[in-house]
Specification:
The complex is a heterodimer of chains A (395) and B (199). Chain A is an alpha/beta fold and 395 residues long. Chain A has 16 helices and 15 strands. Helices cover 60% and strands 11% of the residues of chain B. The N and C termini of chain B lie far apart (86 Å). Chain B has 199 residues and is of the alpha/beta class. Classes of the chains: A alpha/beta (395), B alpha/beta (199).
Chain lengths: 395, 199
């Protein structure tokens, strides 16, 4: 197999693990790829380097390809989401001061109660809550708006949203600039250690199956380089599968902790990888088995309906044509390429490429090419469902 | 005599906390035209300051983490606010590329004519080139200094352990490096590390 050098941008996060593992454990090499990973200081920098061809692919927030294809932010470019690299993985945390006020108001400190915790959070502040999110187009922002919106806040209008790159979230909280954040690990746990933050909710408690990061590439490059795209997708699928084995995760934590990647002690990285979150500096622990998925339940499959959901949320907020936006969102999530390129690996493919998001309360067997596929749960905390078919009216 | 109506001075904000670098950029801009320039050094308050300044152009290092906050500002602008910020001029790919190569990103208020922005961007790009050159030179000097320190320590260790002169110690380091196909500094570093462990 001929040698192929590919540059991939990433932001230091636990969920950048598939790319790092693909390189470090030789999955990329097996596909004949010399995978060069480029650490980025911000999501804007990652996006620009992708658009300008300094990198061929990127570990990207799932809403960014949709936003860019809609012409929003930066240089409008058609970007494809080739596969989902991780599902869930975010945590919501509050400052020590806000946690104390919430406790005085009767909050019990539960890590799994979106309704109670959200209500206490809203009640505990008499001005607009200052919330840090990593990027305007991010699952973090979407989950936050969905959650506090369903609890009666007008979002984002009644929030003071601050954009902070993930590695800076702990510092910004320590400086007293924000009351709360929604961020990817290990930066929430780092804020617990270094900034007196308290983690109050996993993102998965708001939407139990949220596509978090995707493998992104320029649409034009994807069309011109089908061979490279196939190889890249296959090596990342192998890395994702390796990561799904919990026995491998301690080793993954060790690799991620290296200076060139996250540069964070692996005991902090392991919390997200093992689903055991330490919520306060005093060491309170919470089990969070659904915190982060790399491969389980067809996590890597880029559902057209996920792209449509993201587009629908953005369109509603910015006043765009919702139906047209949903078509753009669906086109971004390349389930067609996923089938073509990964079918050869013997991966069980779902029969359909879109689903009604939020409809599965429990794990359920579904129609698939090999008959062994289990999906769900994929509930939204408020019980809402999202039907991606174009003739559905918004609820 | 015809008096042309004067367009108001362009308001430019430069986001850079290093004083030397920001001075270099501002000097370059001043030489290119008459502008109203503000330097923002404190990154935590950028969003607030920019909202009050309402600049026409924002210049910022590509690698500056505060860029994501600028992105948010540009998207948040609703119909009632000034349409803010697009990334350089969308019709001019070449300038965009040159800017990125120089390590600069520029946010320009929508609707400004390219002829007014071009001189600003050209001057700024030239200056960002100088800044990044300065930065890499500084890094090179620093690492050269660190290398010399390591080699000096290794020489000292050899002189002490084997009773040789300074020149002989260096010759020994160099020969070992050549034999092993490594750099002198790597051999020196290995020796220093080993000596520290044996202490």
């Amino acid at each position: 197999m001929s040698h192929l050098r590919l540059h991939c941008g990433f932001v230091p996060l636990v969920d950048s693990a598939p790319m790092i593992v693909a390189r470090e454990l030789g999955f990329a090499q097996e596909e004949g790829i010399d995978l060069v990973l480029v650490k980025m200081p911000s999501w804007s920098a990652l996006r620009d380097s992708l658009v300008l061809g300094q990198t061929e692919a990127a570990h990207m927030l799932s809403p960014v390809p949709v936003a860019m294809s809609l012409g929003l932010g930066g240089l409008p470019t058609r970007i494809d989401a080739l596969m989902v690299l991780s599902v869930n993985g975010n945590v919501i945390g509050v400052s020590g001061a806000l946690a104390a006020t919430m406790r005085k108001g009767g909050w019990t400190g539960s890590f799994h109660d979106p309704v109670g915790t959200g209500q206490h959070m809203i009640r505990a502040t008499d001005r607009h809550l200052r919330v840090g999110v990593p990027y305007p187009f991010s699952m973090h922002a979407e989950l936050l708006y969905l959650w506090l919106g369903a609890l009666g806040l007008s979002t984002p209008g009644e929030l003071d949203v601050r954009t902070v790159p993930p590695p800076h979230m702990p510092d910004v909280m320590a400086a007293g600039e924000i009351d709360a954040f929604c961020v990817g690990e290990p930066w929430g746990s780092t804020a617990v250690e270094n900034a007196g933050a308290e983690l109050v909710l996993p993102g998965a408690a708001i939407w139990s199956f949220a596509p978090e990061k995707v493998l992104a590439a320029r649409h034009g490059w994807v069309e011109e380089n089908p061979e490279a795209v196939g190889r890249l997708m296959r090596c990342l699928a192998q890395a994702a599968k390796w990561l799904s084995d919990r026995d491998n995760r301690a080793m993954a934590g060790e690799i991620l902790s290296r200076e060139e990647y996250l540069n964070i002690p692996n005991r902090i990285i392991d919390r997200a990888l093992m689903g055991r979150i330490v919520t306060t500096a005093r060491g309170l622990q919470a089990e969070a088995p659904n915190l982060l998925h790399f491969n389980a339940k067809a996590a890597n499959f880029p559902w057209r309906s996920q792209g449509a959901w993201i587009a629908s949320q953005i369109a509603r907020r910015l006043g765009l044509d919702r139906k047209a936006a949903m078509e753009v969102g669906k086109a971004c999530f390349r389930s067609d390429l996923y089938r073509t390129n990964l079918g050869k690996l013997g991966i069980d493919m779902p029969g359909a490429s879109e689903k009604v998001e939020g409809s599965l309360d429990h794990a359920e067997a579904v129609a698939s090419t090999r008959g062994s596929l289990v999906l769900g749960p994929d509930r939204f905390f408020d019980g809402s469902v999202f039907d991606p078919s174009p003739d559905q009216r918004p609820v | 005599m015809n008096v042309m109506p004067m367009a108001p001075k362009l308001k430019i904000a430069v986001v850079e906390k290093d004083v030397d670098r920001s001075r270099l950029i501002v000097d370059g801009l001043c030489a290119a035209g008459d502008f109203d320039i503000t330097v923002l050094g404190d990154e935590a308050t950028i969003s607030r300051r920019l909202a009050s300044i309402e600049p026409d152009v924002v210049l910022i290092d590509v690698a500056n983490p505060s860029r994501d906050a600028l992105e948010a500002l540009s998207i948040a602008s609703g119909a009632t606010e000034r349409p803010v910020a697009m990334f350089v001029d969308q019709s001019d790919d070449e300038t965009t590329r040159a800017a990125i190569e120089a390590g600069m990103s520029a946010y320009v208020v929508d609707g400004l004519s390219p002829s007014r922005i071009k001189p600003v961007l050209d001057a700024a790009i030239a200056r960002f080139h100088m800044v990044s050159q300065m930065r890499s030179e500084l890094a090179a000097v620093k690492s050269a200094l660190a290398e010399r320190k390591t080699i000096d320590r290794a020489k000292g260790l050899l002189m002490q352990a084997r009773g040789v002169s300074e020149d002989e110690a260096y010759a020994l380091l160099r020969k070992t490096a050549m034999d092993q196909g490594r750099k002198v500094v790597d051999v020196a570093q290995a020796l220093v590390t080993a000596a520290d462990l044996l202490k």
